[in-house]
Amino acid sequence: MNGNGKPAFDAGQIAGLDAAFAIVRAVGVPEDKIEDADRRQHLVRGVAAGLHRSRAFLLVAPLLLFLAVTYLVPIGGILFRSVDDSALQTWMPKTAAAFAQWDGAGLPDEDTLAVFAAELGQARKERTIGRVANHLNYRMSGMRSLFNKTGRRLAAGGGPDAAGNWREWLAQLDPRWGRRQVWTIIKAASGRYTQVNYLAALDLRRGDDGGVARQPEGKRIYVKIFLRTLWVSLAVTLFCLLLGFPVAHLMAGLPPRISNWLMIMVLLPFWTSLLVRTTSWIALLQSNGVINGTLVWLGLIGDDERIQMVFNLTGTVVAMIYVLLPFMVLPLYSVMRGIPRSLTRVAVSLGATPLTAFARVYLPQTLVGVGAGSLLVFMLAVGYYITPALVGGQSGQLISNFIFYHIKVSLNWGFASALGVILLAAVLLVYWVYHKLVGIEKMRVA
């Protein structure tokens, strides 16, 4: 300190502060605001910290942009498409407005039907009728043929005479126009957003009275598929834990030279195509495959008693366990490697049995790896597609296979998006439960 009570600086420190002060002036801080060297040093440190944060943000900005484009934007598109119902408003706006004012009782009035017929004929001429017809056909089978048939007649100049009315003319053209359900389907599509896709994904539907009702018994399939997907994912996770825990425990206790070779064997499947690994199980599990052939050769089963282990749920579970097992072993091994083995030896020396020492000393310390591996395997299993598609057959299909069907085959993207959103919500629920029970911050250890 000098005689004035100010901190004393040598020539080098003063030169450094003057250089930093030049940076402060450059960013717009007035000189008269800086009273002494302490204030100057504080401001310089603040500016330097701000520049450091800016540089750090610029470094991660490409990654954030990549995640936004490839992850957040597609999820937003899926959420929007699952509730989007703007086809009728886009291609037949006057019809949508007219049916929005209809109260839904009985059949539409003549003015509404006249607007509908005029726009339907015009849509046929402009070749946009297929967009509306396909959209409504997802709601009720047969709507595409009904719209195309009626549109052709209207585009050719068909319609009632001066003394007739649209209701009778449409009913004579096709009796389905006399059914109230057809018109309520059109009215339900007159809005911009809809809940129909989510109701159908949960095996529900809108009744004629506008209320929510269950689908007929023969059409209740998606809730069963969701439950099957969750059950298979839990079973695969449990079997991966039972098989992976001993392997990780063995690797963690061996010398590095041996454990490295075992780690290579664990990672070896990653170097082989998933398609090759999955199809190889067909050769192993089929009726004339290696496993059945060995059982027959050993005399354990007869030649006419071969076990059907592929193209069913069994094949799906077995192949998924094989593919996902490394994702359980790696988190377990990373945690077990950091647990001192001397702890269990100390517990045994103090009178505990080996089983008690394992259960009360060693096992609790591995729960972080157990939780991380289980969460990772479950989240991968719940959205698996290629393995059930190849070895699952009809009884081994999971919800991802139905999502693919509606995207690629039926082209019902709205319904496929609703299935995907429900699956995403289930995964987020599992993630939230894991965070409440274990703590997501503990996953960093694994």
Supply database-style keywords:
mainly alpha; 67% helix; 3 domains; single chain; 21 helices; two-stranded antiparallel sheet; MetI-like fold; 446 residues; extended
What does the secondary structure layout of this molecule look like, with pairings?
Layout: H1 11-26, H2 37-83, H3 87-91, H4 93-101, H5 110-125, H6 129-137, H7 143-155, H8 166-173, H9 180-188, H10 196-201, E1 204-206, E2 212-214, H11 222-253, H12 256-267, H13 274-285, H14 290-297, H15 313-336, H16 342-349, H17 354-362, H18 367-382, H19 386-391, H20 399-408, H21 413-437
Antiparallel strand pairs: 1-2
Explain what the structure shows.
Helix content is 67%, strand content 1%. The protein is mainly α and 446 residues long. The chain has three domains: 11-80; 87-157 and 169-194, no CATH class; 222-445, Orthogonal Bundle (MetI-like fold). It has a two-stranded antiparallel sheet with strand order 1-2. Helix 4 runs antiparallel to helix 5 (110-125), helix 11 (222-253) packs antiparallel against helix 12 (256-267) and helix 20 packs antiparallel against helix 21. The protein starts with 10 loop residues before the first helix and ends in a 9-residue tail after the last helix.
